[in-house]
Amino acid sequence: MFGERLRGMLELLEITGAELARMSGCDKSNVSRMVSGARVPKNGGAGARRLVNALYFCADEKGRVDELCDLISCENRDSADDIKEQMMLWLYDGEKTAVKADFVKEKIPYRALGERLGAVMELAGLSNVRLGKLLNLDPSYISRFRSGFRSPKANQKMMNDLCLILLERMEARDTLPALCKLIDAASDVMTDKEMIFDLLYRWLYQTDRTDHTSFVEGVIDQIGSIQADVKMPPILPEGVMVDETLLPGGATADETMEENVQVYCGVNGLRRAVLRFLGNVVKRKEKELFLYSDQSMDWMVSDPAFRAKWASLMILCITGGTQINIIHNINRDLAEMADAIKSWLPLYPSGKVKSYYCKTRGSERFSTTLFLCPGYACISGSNVIGAEDEHGIYRYDTDPQLLKAHEAAYQELLGRSGELAHVYKTTDVDPLVSLELPSATILGNTLSLATMPEKTLTAILERMKVSEEVKEHIVSVREQRNSVLSGIIDKGGFHEYAPLPREEELFEERVPIDLPGLHATYTPKEYAEHIQNIISLSDRMANYRFHVLPEAPFEDIKIVISDKGVAVMRQKAPYLIILFEHPDICRAFAVYVEGIRGQYQQDKLSTKKQLERYL
Known about the structure:
By secondary structure, this protein is of the alpha+beta class. The relative contact order is 0.08.
């Protein structure tokens, strides 16, 4: 009977035994035996609870809880625990369990870094505040480590310091034996400081999947630190625009190079060519640059003095109105993408940078460099990889016919490239509208504008006394995002993750509102109206899910994550949306949010109870 009824549930929910095994954390062979009836788990036991939890969450995700309740003849449909109890009763054909089943969601012990860190901090007797002081970090940062939103993995020194501090504290508290038991280490390693450090380090920072946390955090932190204006160059114009920079060929007064120098050799020659090239672009106030190089960046970064000059000239190009198009050297490596994004992101608010990545893979034999200013000059070189520093040859061409040929070559490469990062301002059309997303996840620090009732938004804008132009724009953005939300709900699934405020935050009106280009906070009445609409959406729409987080993953940042694109939205000046469409970036963010979903997944009925406290 058990196997037959289990098969009936699987058929109703349209899931396979393999899917059920993955969701319940059971071995596929065990689930297969349950489905066939060869194995029946103990009524009310841990295995049965995991099975029922998985079946219920599947019904909840698919919006089939009512159908499930019809199948099992459950009358009370307002409590997830009551429904699960009835599921257990039905599966065992009315046989009651000796002890009432506990359907609290079970977690795999210490699966997440935050759980492991919390366990060791307890042994060390450290709070977030005390550990933050010892590491010279804000306590909120430690809190995000433990919540799973942040990781120390992006900073090797922090990783080492964290382990050392924890070990020192545990040694002082005589809790190293408990640590050995926790991390499954032999007790005799306690006296070997290097070994116990290595064991703790490996246990604390282990991961069961490819970990993209440091990449995601690095990108978000960089976007969060963008300044409203492009900073002044490291070296003022008079320090860069010297004669040797601007003379053809980089010639000094003591050299007799002719003005039509066309060939530069080695790394120093490339640097001289670049200074000549950029210096004259600035001097001539050229309109546009096209840049590509897939050789090692050592020529630019290994000499600090040259790097400062290069950075200064690039900033002078931007502030002088030159449009820069750059195809980054990215071979499906997140570290390369992070470097590319980090290098150019500070210039994005200017609107003068368009960055791309080439979709075709490069050669492992030759490197290519092509720096073009149409109508003025081009630096080009094709050299054996690894030999560029000493034997690289770079042409400096100004002939109009050659410039046209170089431009045609660059345009051909551009045609095989995708845009790495597209920057939108609050006055632009919302980029999510054009993506036609089949599903999406929002990760934010407050409720989404897309789910705000139009009436509430109008009242907020009137209370703020904004101009009619601003009001019309924000109402339009809300309509666009609501349309995107509706489209996603119709096609696939829309998951929204956000923290709920503490009572004092709400009544002191410190809870931020998601208004593009504006800073505002909710009144308790406005927040209640927004929450009511979220509850209504969740009740009506099977594919809309709201998930409660313990705190905001990032400050003043909202992220929309999908298979087609990742939009990072700044909720402070400068108000920007940066859209990434590179498949590897989308996958990295998807893995990151999947980890959060695994920690904070909750059924709709339980979430509804949490939301109703704000009504």
